[in-house]
Write a structure and sequence with these properties.
Distance between the termini: 53 Å
Strand content: 15-25%
Helix content: 40-55%
Structural class: alpha+beta
Length: 144
Amino acid sequence: MSLGDLMTYIWLAIVILLIIVELMTIHLTTIWFVTSAIVSLILTFFIDSFTVQFIVFIVLGIILLITTRPTLLKLLAKYRQKKGIKHLIGMRGQVISPISKNQLGEVKVDGQLWLATSDVTLENGSFVTVMEVNDNIIKVSSDK
């Protein structure tokens, strides 16, 4: 196996790892480095220098992050506003801070934190389903 073949596999592994990280976090930060890793992967067919490939990976990733992330976040915010928060009904989430019958807690649903109420006490880490949406407060029930 030549060094070029090895670098191809290394860049492919980096692409897969970054995709997994992006899917787990959904914060639109590693997706730009996925793109730059794909470019570096393609460069392995033309340039044998790892240093050049790595510099392209870092510089292109940072440029993409700085120039396109704010625009994409604005577009996503507009889409979420159009969609409204009623789309949360039926979605699953996880309790981040405890909820009791007379006290609001926090639930992470769809990658965002929401104030939540419940008819029963729910501890940290409990999985819940969104039953209602009133203003910016959601009502959840336990997923037992």
